[in-house]
Design brief:
The protein is mainly alpha-helical. The protein folds into two domains: 98 residues, no CATH class; 33 residues. 57% of the residues lie in helices and 10% in strands. It has four helices and four strands, in the order H-H-H-H-E-E-E-E. It has a two-stranded antiparallel sheet with strand order 1-2. Strand 3 and strand 4 form a beta hairpin. The longest helix has 25 residues.
Length: 135
């Protein structure tokens, strides 16, 4: 015998799922938002970067659905843009925090490798490894 409370909770879950899925996923593929986000996340190695990219990817998937004609059933399109912006700013803050915690001061303009404090030439306000800058 099942509990009426359990049925009430499950029915709420179904209603929320249907409402949110309508905004985030393609009509013919309820997993499309996760697949899109996974593709973006696959481009990164750092696990925390992958999380940020996944969150951004899910917002992009929602925006793709809504900007291609679906009417929002949940939050507004503007809210999705603002959520996206918030995740991007949080990711940038994470990057800067991670950078500050290391001795890395940036990336070489030629080879894109991290530059340590004592291993660079600052020419025309651009960072280069001493071994990369030959002008």
């Amino acid at each position: 015998m099942s509990s009426p409370k359990v049925k009430e909770i499950v029915n709420k879950i179904i209603a929320i799922h249907e409402k949110k899925s309508a905004d985030y996923a393609k009509d013919d593929n309820p997993f499309s938002n996760f697949e899109r986000a996974a593709l973006l996340a696959s481009w990164f190695d750092d696990p925390v970067d992958k999380v940020f990219v996944t969150m951004l990817g899910i917002k992009l998937a929602r925006l793709a659905e809504l900007l291609n004609g679906k009417s929002p059933k949940n939050e507004s399109i503007e809210d999705s843009f603002l959520d996206y912006d918030t995740y991007a700013v949080l990711w940038y803050a994470y990057y800067l925090t991670k950078l500050a915690a290391s001795d890395t001061i940036g990336r070489c303009c030629i080879c894109q490798e991290p530059i340590m404090n004592m291993d660079y030439c600052n020419h025309n306000n651009r960072l280069y490894h001493n071994m990369c800058y030959h002008a």
